Amino acid sequence: MSGQMSGQTSERMSSPSPVAEALAVTKRFGSTAALQDVSLCVMPGESHALVGRNGAGKSTLVSILTGLRRPDTGEARFAGASAPALADRDAWRERVACVYQHSTIIRDLTVAENLFVNRQPARRGIIDWRAMRREARALLDHWKIDVREDARAGDLSVEARQLVEIARALSYGARFIILDEPTAQLDGDEIKRLFKRIRELQAEGVTFLFISHHLQEVYDICQAVTVLRDARHIVSAPVGEMPRERLIEAMTGERGGLAVAGAASREPLAADTAVALEVARLNGHDYEDVSFAVKRGEVVGLTGATSSGRTSVAEAIAGLRAQARGEIRIGGEPLPPGDVPAALARGVGCVPKDRHHEGLVLTQSVAENASMTIARVLGKFGLVPPAKKNAFGRSAIEALGIVAQGPEHVVSGLSGGNQQKVVMARALANDPNVLVLIDPTVGVDVKSKEALLSVVDRVRGEGKAVLVVSGELDDLRTCDRVLVMFRGRVAAEFPAGWQDNDLIASVEGVSLHEE
User: Where is the ABC transporter domain (predicted)?
Assistant: First the structure.
C-alpha cells in the first residue's frame, strides 16, 4: 500500500502544473446564475477549446480568468498559485491576455504605438519614438509576425491585427492567451495561416484557450475541449474522445446535429414565377459585372472568400453602400444606389454583417430595436406610443423565440444568439419581399442557428425572395442554388444537393484553374 501511495505521489509531483484553472467557480447576477460550480483546467502548451451555446457562461468564465470579475465562490489559479488581486492589473497581464472577437487595437495608432500603449520607452520624460520602433521591430521579429512596426493599425488585415494583439500580450510575459471567436472575420486562407501560427506558438510554450462556435475548428486546432451548458460544467475531455455528435449533444442536451431543412428535396418553382430581385452588371470597389436574379419563393446563396466581394454586393442590394455601375431592380423597379430608406420602401429587409455596429442600438430595448424600421407605420411622425411599441416587441419575442425578460429588456444584456434574433426581427418588421441575410449565424450557437435558419424556410414559403450571403456551409444548405464569387466575379453556380468538397474547392478557386 505504501509503495502504491509513494508511486502516486511521485506521479503527481512529476506532472506539470496547469497553466490556468477555475476551481468550483460560481457567479450570480441577482437571481441569475451565470456560472454554477464550474471548473476548468488548461495544461501547458495545449489549445483547449471552450464551447457552449450563447448564454452558457463562457463570457463570464473568461471575465473571471482575466481578472475583470471576482467569483462569488471558488477561485482562479495560474501555475498552481492563486490569482492576483483584481486591482493588480500588471500582475494579471503577466499571466493572461484575451484577444477578443472585436479588436481592442487602436486603429489610428501605429503598430508600435499599440504594442507599447501606456508604457512607451521614454528618455528624460519624453517618449523615445526611435527606441519604441526598435523594440517593436524586435518583438515582432521574435514572434515571427510579419507586419511593419510603423504601419497604421487600421490599415492592417483582421488577421494581422489579431497577431499584433497576441504579440502585445506576449510582451507582458503572458504565455496563456484566450482567443475569443478568432476566425469570425477570416476567410479560409487566413484561418489556415492563423492556425499555423498558433501551432508554432504552442511549440514555443504558449498555451491557448480557444472559444469558437465553429465546431470543426475544435477538431482542427485543439487538443482538449470543455463544454458548458446552462451555466454548468458538462464535460472536459481530449478532443479525440469527443466525436462531433457527442460534442453537440453535450452543448445542447439533445442528440443529433443541426436540424435545418435542406433545399435538395424541395419542389422546383414554376417556370413563370415572378422575379423579385434582379442584379444587372453590378460593379463596385471589390466586384465587377455581377448579374443574377432571385424569384419569389426562391432562396439563393452567395458565397466566396471574405475578399471575394460577396458582402459588398449584398450591402449594395440593401442600400448600405452604392455601386459604381449597374442596376438593382426590386419587383421590376430600379433601386436608387446607396439609399436605405428607398430599399426599405421597395420591400428589402436586411440582416447586416456586423450586428453590434450596423444591426443594433445596444442601449435600447428589444422593442425599440425590432420596430426601428417601421416607427412611422406604428405612430404619427415616428412617435410610437410605448404600449404599441411593446406589443410589437412581444410579438417579435414570441415569433423568433427571443429569450428576454420582456420587450423592454435592453439588448446589450442579451446573449449573442438572441441579439441576432432581434436583428432578424427588425429585418422582417416591414414585411419585406426581398430578405438579404449577411452572415446571419456568425457567432451564434447551434440552437440559435436552427432558429434563425428556420426563418428562411418560413419566409420562402410566404413567397418572399431570400438572398443568403455567407461562408458558412450550414447557412447555404437552405438555398435552392448557390452562386460562388471569386476575385469579384460570379464564378460558379451549384444547385441544391452540392457536395461540401466541390463547393469549398470553388470558393478557393481550385475549380477555376486548368489542369
Answer: 20-264, 269-512
At 391-447, the pLDDT tens digits run 888 888 988 888 888 888 998 888 888 888 999 998 888 889 999 999 988 777 777
Question: What pLDDT is stored for residue 251 in this prediction?
Answer: 81
Q: What is the DSSP string of 442-508?
A: TT--HHHHHHHHHHHHHHHHTT-EEEEE-S-HHHHTT-SEEEEEETTEEEEEEETT--HHHHHHHHT
Length of the chain in terms of residues written: 515
**Model confidence over 235-257: pLDDT tens digits?**
999 999 998 888 878 887 765 55
Domain check: are 379 and 236 in the same one?
Answer: no
Beta strands in 244-307 (DSSP E): 275-284, 287-295, 299-304
Whether 262 is in a domain gets the answer no
115 and 208 both lie in a single domain = yes
* Segments in 371-445 forming alpha helices (H): 375-378, 386-400, 416-428
* 244 shares its domain with 285: no
pLDDT of residue 9: 40
Is residue 88 assigned to a domain?
yes
43/189 same-domain check: yes
175 and 302, same domain (yes or no): no
219 alpha carbon, distance to own chain's centre:
18
Q: What is the number of domains present in the chain?
A: 2
Of the three residues 220, 252, 284, the one that is the final residue of a domain is 252
Residue that wins the pLDDT comparison between 385 and 177: 177
Three cell numbers written together for 299: 432562396
Is there a single domain that holds both residue 236 and residue 280? no
Q: Which CATH number does the domain housing residue 319 bear?
A: 3.40.50.300
Mean pLDDT score across all residues of the chain: 86
- Specify the amino acid at residue 370: A
Domain for residue 387, yes or no? Answer: yes
Contacts with 150 (C-beta within 8 Å, 6 or more apart), sequence order = 110, 111, 112, 133
Residue 240, in any domain of the structure: yes
Query: Is residue 11's pLDDT more than 70?
Result: no
Does the CA dihedral 242-244-247-253 come out positive or negative? negative
The phi, psi pair for 183, rounded to 5°, reads -105, 5
**Which has the closest alpha carbon to 350: 454, 418, 435?**
435
Q: Check whether residue 464 and residue 396 sit in a common domain.
A: yes
CA distance 220 to 222: 6
Residue 319 has pLDDT above 60, yes or no: yes
In this predicted structure, what is the pLDDT of residue 305? Answer: 78
Q: What is the residue range of 505's domain?
A: 275-512
Percent helix, strand, coil in the chain, to 5, is: 40, 25, 35
282 and 403 belong to one structural domain? yes
Q: What are the angstrom distances between the C-alpha of 364 and each of 151, 167, 186, 368, 414?
A: 37, 36, 30, 6, 12
- 8 A C-beta contact, residue 466 and residue 437: yes
Lowest mean pLDDT, pick from 16-20, 131-135, 142-146? 142-146
Residue with cell 432562396: 299
Q: How confident is the model at residue 372 (pLDDT cuts 50, 70, 90)?
A: confident
